[in-house]
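Hey, can you fold this one?
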Amino acid sequence: MVECVYRNVTNKMVILKCIGAKHFYHERVVMPTELHWFKAPEDGRLEIWRMSGQGQMLHIRADVAEYAIQHESAANTALAC
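Sure. Predicted structure:
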């Protein structure tokens, strides 16, 4: 599992859906300007559904890796202090 973050930069509510192996499924409503942190399998797929007048519309389909948080090593962080 990797830590991921998604920021809704649109002016509409979106639905974030993440699908992975072994029946992994995560779904969350993300409001405009909201930041959503979540954990997902490295090989998972992410879908962002935007609300429209006709209902939900697929807006983005991407790999989880595109939203994964890159952590600095503790040694590099300590050197920065």
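Residues 20 and 44 are 4 Å apart (CA to CA). Let me know if you want another pass with a different chain boundary.
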